[in-house]
What we know:
Keywords: Coiled coil, Signal. Residues 59-86 form a coiled coil. InterPro entries: 26kDa_periplasmic_antigen, SIMPL/DUF541. By secondary structure, the protein is α+β, with helices and mostly antiparallel strands. It has two domains: 36-48 and 163-209 and 231-245, Protein of unknown function (DUF541), domain 1 (Translation Initiation Factor IF3, 2-Layer Sandwich); 51-106 and 117-159, Alpha-Beta Plaits (2-Layer Sandwich), CATH 3.30.70. Helices cover 35% and strands 35% of the residues. Strands 1, 6, 7 and 8 form a four-stranded antiparallel beta sheet that branches. A four-stranded antiparallel beta sheet has the order 3-4-2-5.
Amino acid sequence: MAPILSKTILMTALLALPLGGAAPVWAQEAKPREAVISVTGDGESAVAPDMAVVNLAVVKQAKTAREALDENNKAMNEVLKALKDGGIAERDLQTSGFSIQPQYNYPQPVDGQQQQPQLIGYQTINSITIRLRDLAKLGQVIDQSVTLGINQGGDIQFTNDKPEAALEEARKNAVAEAVKKAKTLSEAAGVKLGRIIEINENVPRPMPQPTYRATMMKEASDAAVPVQSGENNYNVSVTVTFAIEQE
């Protein structure tokens, strides 16, 4: 009879385990949830740009692909040489696009019949991206490049080489605004603001947004293209969670 008795005791112990393990879970669920308040703050910092990214291209057309390429190469080589002679480093010049495309003429239909397109030549496009670290030269660089053969592009983005200080200031402003909002909400609700539980910076990473408080840059010469650099706004958003102190 001893083996039967041992099995009975073992089964009784196993059945008792879930009940014993569940007790802490029930106790945890019974614990009241901590009262919190979450707010989002937006911070901004404005700083003058110190670098421009310019996209320019040479577009050439000729009867053959070889002729179009040769003409394009000649113009682009002159542009690159002038840029380097002007003090722009190799690391700030990058080919951003290149293409050779056939060009067709599409005749009008004859007696309602579509006509075959006629090959009339080829077009080559060679694009470069320039990082210009001396903004005072921007107008002159564009003017000189057009003179030497640039005939497409001109997209300009003003940015900052090292925006860390501006971003840090924007983060401080964002947290300060979040704290101010939380105080206003807690006072309006008649509760006391407690400790900070969590701070999260919202993604994506802030990028510079140009503002319209622009001032005319000094032109290198009367013939230079007039440009305005203005200011860049760096925006940061944070979410801060506070505890609400219980009386």
